[in-house]
Amino acid sequence: MQYELLVGLRYTRAKRRNHFISFISLTSMLGIALGVAALIVVLSVMNGFQKEVRARILGVVSHVQITGAENRLSEWQEVAREAASLPAVVAAAPFVNAQGMLMLGPSVRGVVVRGVVPELEQKVAEIGLRMVAGKLESLVPGEFAIVLGAELARALGARVGDRVTLIAPQGLITPAGILPRLKQFTVEGVFEVGMFEYDSTLALINLADAQKLYGMGDAASGVRLKLRDLFESRQVTRDLITRLKGDLYISDWTRSHANYFRAVQIEKTMMFIILLLIVAVAAFNIVSTLVMAVTDKQPDIAILRTLGASPGGIMKIFVVQGALIGVIGTLIGVAGGIALALNIDVVVPFLERLLSMKFLSQEVYYITELPSDLQSGDVISIALVSLLLSLFATLYPSWRAARVNPAEALRYE
User: Fold this and answer.
1) Which is nearest to 199 in space by CA: 133, 111, 137, 128?
2) Contact 396/294 with Cβ under 8 angstroms?
3) Of 239, 255, 271, which residue is a domain's last?
4) What integer pLDDT is reported at residue 344 of this predicted model?
5) How is residue 73 annotated by DSSP?
6) Do 171 and 316 reside in the same domain of the chain?
7) For the chain, what is the mean pLDDT?
8) Is 90 in the same domain as 193?
9) Statement to judge: residues 178 and 280 lie in one domain
10) pTM here?
């Protein structure tokens, strides 16, 4: 082992004559550990929120959606069969997408109407698992049944069994003029996916009923696909563009909610930069620690120089000393951050009971528990950045130590 490493380790372990230097070293180490742990926990929680919201969005929105020109796809069966032949596609379901107005007594609400085949829709979306009243299978062809989002049902004052009137924007041309096309539907269920955008505007009816109401014949608006891996959506979209012929619009979930996921990614990046300042402040405390250590060890440096140590060797000694503080602090922070991120579901309820308060109230937030998704890539990048900052902080004090003049250092000894 080189003498620089041995002396650097000895300086780190030895009891200092100046206890203030030891105190600053300890605070630097703890500061790095705290910053690293905070970064790991915060990024894990943000990953958890992103994963939870993505799951809720994809509970309603398909992974890939194929839509015909002017919202009409006559040969949807062939398109669904061709798309389902791809290995990455596990299910396909037709849909009719339209707008309308729902009326119940004096209450009127604009809605997005989706015509679905219940048994196929449950293979591409999770609405059937999010039912709070009734069942999705109640959408029987010809029965003119309807399933409403929870917020929409609350706004209309509708309950299971009530009859609501659906008004379609397409009118009927009669000798008396253009009359609105309307039909009474029976509320057979209520769903809640936890996204206000869908819970307040989406209404589901049977595909055949939607085709009759909107005069689409046997056509559908398009086909919705579910993939084996949702992150293959862009590749599947490119494959479908080359395989399917005709005037079609193909989009995936990353495009339909691109602004949201881009905003989440930007927020995650900014949080990483902000919290990294904690690590940076603690790492640069190593500068003051080593500057005082160099001043304290000037006689030792002079003796080593007279024994033949080169300036580079002296520099290595203090680089080892400072880097060791950063390594220990980073390791403690990584261990603490991983432990906390993996047990966030235990720690948060304990703090809520201890403080007698609810962090995410059910009356305000749809997500009432802090989710956590620990990703190895985040941990590795945080640890590497922390180690690099710690190493960078050792360069100036080590350079000063290498420039110590032995004669000046030993003049008053």
Assistant:
1) 111
2) no
3) 255
4) 82
5) B
6) no
7) 80
8) yes
9) no
10) 0.69
